[in-house]
Batch of 2 targets.
Target 1
Amino acid sequence: MTELDNELKSADKAASEYINIFIDESIHDRGNLIVIAAVFRADNLQELVGDALLECGFDSARDEFKSSVKMAGNPAAQRLRDRLKHILGTCKIAVAICPVSERAAVVEHAGRLLSGLNGEALEPPATVYFDGGMKRALLELPEGITPIHGCDSKWIAGIQVADCAAYLVSMMLLAELGIVTKTVPASTVYPGDEGEIELAWTLWAAVRYALSSGNPVGGYDEDGWCEPLMHPFGLLVSDGC
């Protein structure tokens, strides 16, 4: 049994007591950006993702969700992506963004993202699972948070959900940059409606409540509304951007 196997066995034993954090990246040369998504859930996602794979016609022991798979003309992959979007709605998502030139530093960015989270959002003990494609790096994480590097997303299924999250946020950003302009029938969101609607908007709508945001720090105005000043958490943007 390898060192990684031992780490995973130990982490799995304590999974019911730990917050589990799954991290993956989505790289887009055309936008010169990398989105690093951290997905949080208080229990293991293994069974949920396995059920989603089976219900969409895949073998959970052999197949996995990959956002890089071509979706056009692939209804099974589209159904699986929709299932993972639904699962994401039950999680919390934190995001780091950096330029492609900083690909070797994505784990460091992820560490900074986790270290800057609001205390209530990340309360130790917790285990952080990094996708195997992310270069290992020394991390300074809050006490009680254990990183596990080099994870295979077929066996740590939560990473597949993080892959989906990173892809969805990437598409939103590429749309804001004017690089992606894809639309879908409005009826896919609002049954009976005609016309088209921006794909990026539908993606945002699917996960908006899962996205981490911030705490108001500006007090309240005379009408009782919070001043638009926030202490952000769950978002880190590299200086390289």
Target 2
Amino acid sequence: MTQRAEKSDGSRLYAAVHQLDRFMNRLTDILAFIGMAALIGAIGIVVVDIIWRRIGGQSLVGAVDLTQFCVMAAASWAIPYAFSAHAHVTVDLIGKNHFRAVFRIIDTLIPALCAGLMAFLLYLSWGRAMEQWNYGDVSQNLAIPMILFWGFLLSGMAISMLVCLVHFLKLLLTNENI
């Protein structure tokens, strides 16, 4: 058996990371589906509001609040899916064929850097969300607690951070030259 096969297939750590990766993929798939359903709901609210304005001559009460709420869910829960599906944009400026070893190291470190960035953004957002919680801020028309809006954002960042950490561990365990 080769060293890489022992490292990848026989390791309990690799098996645990692989299971965690599969769980995170399923979780992000579900969240993205819910987020896209919320986006469809937001579109529906806007369409109903437009029709109601034409027929009834007035706007639908709470349409802006509900639309914002739905868009917040869709955007915040799509971010972890993008990390999980590796759907981020990459640019090849130099050429990976010439510097394979360097780019393998960089490609392995990128998820760790992304996890760090998500952790930092989560930390900053948590402070602002707690301010909203303490002030008891609510939305303008329907009085939806603003902490619910922040809940989508915070959960999206936390799950994104976990997805990046799991991806980093997976890359670390599969790359034999690092």
